[in-house]
Write a structure and sequence with these properties.
The complex is a heterodimer. Chain A is an all-beta fold. In chain A, 0% of the residues lie in helices and 48% in strands. In chain A, strand 7 and strand 8 form a beta hairpin. By secondary structure, chain B is mostly beta strands. Classes of the chains: A mainly beta, B mainly beta.
């Protein structure tokens, strides 16, 4: 399968714990995006990378959140000192190089986080 | 990015055509219109993108009038598996780093 993969698919944690999610984009895609989606809402942009460079971060990304893409391939999203309000689906997406004919993002299945 | 307005929900029956209209009165000259589909517990999936007039692919058609202040996604002969949330997005995606701004979407329920 050559789609975007995310691990784990589900994570249950206690408030105050740290969690880390992984995203493996489609191999030739140089742009990688993280979104967060709460129940009944559309996804909200968190941050994106072009290769290993983190080019933009949303105001939603508090200082407890950190994302990395060290070698320009997979990415990790870490949440420190989790809060119940962090419970959501965390989605990763990737996009091909700048090409007018492929101006779409491909999403992974998401990681559902539940903070107790 | 231009704000979009679309119905919260729509019901339909198998075999019918479903048309979802999205309003985007403040669309800019460089903005494209893109639709995504999302099933429960899955990430959104690209359906179709257009700039003006009509675009058709194997899944749907997208109708965009001359003023581009609205657009209509048309799903022909829907089946139960088309039950999903459909999002209309508008933006100059390349200029904005291609980040996507989703609204609340339209929940389409296809009944037997």
């Amino acid at each position: 399968d050559t789609g975007v993969s995310q691990n784990p698919r589900h994570k249950i944690t206690k408030r105050g714990q740290n969690v880390t999610f992984r995203c493996d984009p489609i191999s030739e895609h140089n742009r990688l995006y993280w979104y967060r989606q709460t129940l009944g809402q559309g996804p909200e942009f968190l941050t994106y990378f072009q290769n290993e460079a983190q080019l933009e971060k949303s105001r939603l990304l508090s200082d407890r959140f950190s994302a990395e893409r060290p070698k320009g391939s997979f990415s990790t999203l870490e949440i420190q000192r989790t809060e119940q309000g962090d419970s959501a689906m965390y989605l990763c997406a990737s996009r091909d190089r700048d090409n007018p004919s492929t101006d779409t993002q491909y999403f992974g299945p998401g990681t559902r986080l539940t903070v107790l | 990015l231009a704000k979009t307005t679309q119905p919260i929900s729509m019901d339909s029956y198998e075999g019918q055509e479903v048309n979802i209209t999205c309003s985007h009165n403040n669309i800019a000259t460089n903005d494209y219109i893109t639709w995504y589909q999302q099933f429960p517990s899955q990430g959104p999936r690209f359906i179709i993108q257009g700039y003006k007039t009509k675009v058709t692919n194997e899944v749907a058609s997208l109708f965009i009038p001359a003023d581009r202040k609205s657009s209509t996604l048309s799903l022909p002969r829907v089946s139960l598996s088309d039950t999903a949330v459909y999002y209309c997005l508008v933006g100059a995606f390349k200029a904005a780093g291609n980040k996507l701004t989703f609204g609340g979407g339209t929940r389409v329920l296809v009944k037997p």
